[in-house]
Structures are given as structure tokens and as C-alpha cells.
């Protein structure tokens, strides 16, 4: 997208307008930049007197070498226009505190072309009105870096309500009373709560923790001795799994658990587990099962 400013460009009309002062603790290197395009007293070539703003151009190019500060000669081509044009110089286009770089001089270029994307890369945004263009700082600058002040976010509590015959204890998988109390203390949860002491499922499924009276048998080799058991879960989960195949390694005491819908699925899970062990070059010597 290319926007044409229908007036003559005079470099002497560039000026800086005062903007709102930043917060005291932050130093700003650039104020509001005002670029005005008015009819020049001097007669200039049309291609040197009209400037275009292009949101698709990657670089800013001018065909008037006097617009660049301390230009340096180069020999290259640039594709800002429909066909490549020769670049003779490059340097910086200065606007009293704001410097665009690199800017290329293309004497054979059809127009002066300002890249909007390059201005945005320098922390500026563009707004146009009639024959005036405003370039406003997007961020406050600290040295050569742009500083973005993130506004404070006001947290909105989210209240979840469980209705009907279900409550939080059941919905969260028969959560323990301690976690339920922690949720209540946040003040953000509403709904029905049931203590595990009055939950029929918890009465039958949960038992008191009892320490082992004897020292558990240990082995010195991983996967030398394995223990397997099948447990039934009631009620089944939402996938229909109502059995658990548990395999315990006597060396590490780590366990592998496979959920199952039917007991006969234990065969494929056990074969898969043994195949993993064989890849390590180990074959179990003892396998206990109830």
C-alpha cells in the first residue's frame, strides 16, 4: 500500500513538537516527531518534491542526496520499485533525535519513498491528516533500547459451580479433604462439598496406612525380579477402564501401571513391557503374580 502526499517536500520544514513528558524515572531520547509537507518557495523537480509512504517497502530511499547526513558511496542495486535501481550512497536521515538508518540514495529512482515498516522498527507509528504526517513514539527509549511499560492487570476471580448430584469431591476423583480445604481457602470456589468420611466410595476404597512389619525383599540387579498384580477399580473412569495391571521392579520399587477395560488386555501389556526390558539386554529371572 502506497500513500501519496500531494504537496512539495521541503527539508527545512522538519521540526520537533513537544509531547507529553515521560515519567520522571525514565529518560526519553525522542519527543513527538512532526513532519510537515508544505509548498516550497523554491521550484524543485516533481520527483524530488513529492514523498511517498509505502507500507510494503523494506527500506527508505531518496533521490535527493542532500537529505542524507555524511553520505557514504556504495555500488549496489535495490528492488524497492517495480524494477531494480542503482544505489549510489547510503547513510542516515536525521530528524533531531530520531535517526532512520540505513537510508539509500537512488538518483534514478522515480520518487522519494519512506518505508513505514522501517519507521515502525525504529519505534515510531505514523498517522496522516491532510498534508501533515505525524510520527509518534510507540515506546519510551532508554539509550538505544525501547522500553515498554506493561499496564497492571486486575485479576478477575473465576467462580466454578458444580450443580446437580455431583460435588467437588466426586468430580475431582474423590479428592482428599486437605485439598478441598485448600480450595475453599482461596475464596473463589462455590458449590457442593462432601467429606471423604461420609463418602461411600472412600469408605470402601481407602484404608489406613500400615507400615510393613518386615523388611521388603530387595535385589541388586534391575528387572531381576518382577511382581505383577491386577486391580479392579470401581467405578470405571470415563473411558470405561475398570482394571489396572501393576508391574513392580524389586530393584527400584518403581511400578508400571496399565489401565484396562478387560482383563485379557493384560497379555499385550505384559508382552510390551518385557520387550522393553529385552532391548536393555536383560531377561527377568523371577516373575511373581497372584
From TrEMBL:
InterPro entries under this entry? Integrase_cat-core (IPR001584), RNaseH-like_sf (IPR012337), RNaseH_sf (IPR036397)
Task: Give the compositionally biased regions (Polar residues).
Answer: 9-21
Biological process according to GO: DNA integration
Q: Which keywords has UniProt assigned to this entry?
A: RNA-binding
List the molecular function annotations (GO) for this entry.
RNA binding
List the GO cellular component terms: nucleus
Region labeled Disordered — which residues? 1-29
Lineage: superkingdom: Eukaryota
Question: Is the keyword RNA-binding in the record?
Answer: yes
Domain Integrase catalytic positions = 218-290
What is the protein's name according to its record?
Integrase catalytic domain-containing protein
Amino acid at each position: 500500500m502506497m500513500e501519496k502526499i500531494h504537496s512539495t517536500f521541503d527539508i527545512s520544514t522538519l521540526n520537533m513538537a513537544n509531547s507529553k513528558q515521560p515519567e520522571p524515572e525514565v529518560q526519553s531520547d525522542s519527543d513527538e516527531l512532526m513532519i510537515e509537507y508544505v509548498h516550497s518557495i523554491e521550484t524543485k523537480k516533481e520527483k524530488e518534491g513529492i514523498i511517498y509512504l509505502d507500507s510494503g517497502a523494506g527500506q527508505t530511499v531518496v533521490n535527493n542526496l542532500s537529505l542524507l547526513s555524511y553520505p557514504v558511496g556504495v555500488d549496489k542495486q535495490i528492488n524497492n520499485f517495480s524494477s531494480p535501481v542503482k544505489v549510489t550512497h547510503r547513510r542516515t536521515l536525521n530528524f533531531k533525535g530520531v535517526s532512520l538508518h540505513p537510508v539509500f540514495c537512488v538518483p534514478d529512482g522515480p520518487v522519494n519513498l519512506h518505508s513505514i515498516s522501517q519507521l515502525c522498527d525504529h519505534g515510531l507509528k505514523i498517522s496522516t491528516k491532510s498534508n501533515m504526517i505525524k510520527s509518534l513514539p510507540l515506546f519510551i527509549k532508554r539509550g538505544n533500547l525501547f522500553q515498554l511499560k506493561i499496564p497492571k492487570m486486575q485479576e478477575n476471580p473465576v467462580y466454578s459451580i458444580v450443580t446437580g448430584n455431583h460435588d467437588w469431591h466426586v468430580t475431582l476423583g474423590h479428592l482428599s479433604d486437605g485439598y478441598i480445604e485448600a480450595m475453599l481457602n482461596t475464596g473463589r470456589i462455590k458449590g457442593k462439598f462432601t467429606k471423604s468420611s461420609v463418602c461411600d466410595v472412600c469408605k470402601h476404597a481407602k484404608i489406613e496406612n500400615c507400615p510393613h512389619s518386615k523388611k521388603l525383599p530387595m535385589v541388586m540387579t534391575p528387572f531381576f525380579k518382577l511382581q505383577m498384580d491386577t486391580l479392579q477399580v470401581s467405578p470405571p473412569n470415563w473411558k470405561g477402564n475398570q482394571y489396572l495391571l501393576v508391574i513392580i521392579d524389586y530393584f527400584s520399587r518403581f511400578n508400571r501401571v496399565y489401565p484396562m477395560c478387560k482383563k485379557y488386555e493384560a497379555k499385550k501389556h505384559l508382552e510390551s513391557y518385557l520387550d522393553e526390558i529385552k532391548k536393555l539386554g536383560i531377561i527377568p529371572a523371577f516373575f511373581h503374580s497372584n
